[in-house]
Amino acid sequence: MATQDVRAADSRGRHTTSHRQLILLPGGGLLLDTPGIREVGLIDADEGLSTVFDNIEQLARNCRFRDCGHTTEPGCAVRGALDEGLLDADRWAHFQKLSGELAAFGLTKDRIAQEVERRRVAALQRGYRATKKHLRDTCC
Fold first, then answer.
1. Would 57 be classed as within a structural domain?
2. What is the pLDDT of residue 36?
3. Phi/psi zone of residue 7: left (φ > 0), alpha (ψ -120 to 50 degrees), beta?
4. What's the number of domains the chain is made of?
């Protein structure tokens, strides 16, 4: 693939490709080059998260408290597994990061739905007022 030099000012690269490309990596992975897209996020990935991190969810079910935050609560099975080396700290960090992204996406989705509903109600109210005014002006 064509590349350009790294910028001296901030040591960052410059994207030079102008078309999408899927590249098969030697180890069996895939690399997706998508010019213009800087970040790929998670959408409705709750089920996938549960599948990939099923061991963490299983541990969380064994916590002493149902609303365990897995930080300093007594009887936390996740913290216990981390302390005993039964759960990899990097895996736990990835789970937390992805869970946070999904939660943030859920909040954004809720805000968008609320805004759409607010606009729908406002349009109905405007229509009602306009009809009421029209009837008042034409009636008497």
1. yes
2. 72
3. beta
4. 1
No. of helices (H) and no. of strands (E), the chain: 4, 2
* pLDDT level of residue 15 (50, 70, 90 thresholds): low
User: Shortest CA distance to 59 belongs to which of 79, 45, 74?
Assistant: 79
Distances (CA, A) of 83 to 31, 65, 90: 35, 18, 13
Structural domain boundaries enclosing 66: 43-101
For 25-75, write each residue's pLDDT tens digit. Answer: 998 899 888 877 766 666 666 677 888 889 999 999 999 998 898 988 999
Residue with tokens 């001296």: 8
Q: Looking at the domain assignment, is residue 69 inside a domain?
A: yes
Bridging pattern class, strands 30-33 and 21-24: antiparallel
- pLDDT per residue over 90-117, tens digit each? 999 999 998 888 887 776 777 777 888 8
Residue 33 is assigned to a structural domain of this protein: no
How far apart are alpha carbons 107 and 100 in whole angstroms? 11
